[in-house]
Amino acid sequence: MKRFFLIILILFSSAMVWGQSLAYKTLLKGVYDKEFPLVYPEDKKLTEEVLFLDTREISEFEVSHIKNAKWVGYDTFSLEAISEIPKDKDIVVYCSIGARSQEIGKKLKEAGYQNVYNLYGGIFHWVNEGLPVFDEHGKTNRVHAYSKTWGIWLSKGDKVY
Predict the structure, then answer these.
(1) CATH 2.40.50.140 given to domain 35-160
(2) Which of the residues are catalytic?
(3) pLDDT per residue over 32-85, tens digit each?
């Protein structure tokens, strides 16, 4: 009987994880513009030469960010802040899930930046895939979850609100 309940628990847990994953993918599909290029955390394009631009607000960036990312913000974003970046530089924009970063990416493209990609799933997917994030002291498990509503999509790391 214990074995039966254990099997049921495993099946239920697997269905919950699969269901959440499907819901997350569906959410992202609805957020992304099909014309704007995505890059995935496991993509080989993500070398040391790629410049990550964090389009979240400064309070989110300070909790954690992708290593060596440059903060550019969303509400306060300005092209002047990135004027020193060459127009042919490989740039990956990201935010929590990819909605804000896509908008900033479009502004970069309109300004003549040629190689701009949106990070699929944003920092949430990055962390959920087991990739590291950093704060001013080094590697951390803390991730700004934006809000309790959006935080449900962050399954790894220590959520900060």
Answers:
(1) no
(2) 95
(3) 999 999 999 999 888 989 999 999 999 999 999 999 999 999 999 999 999 999
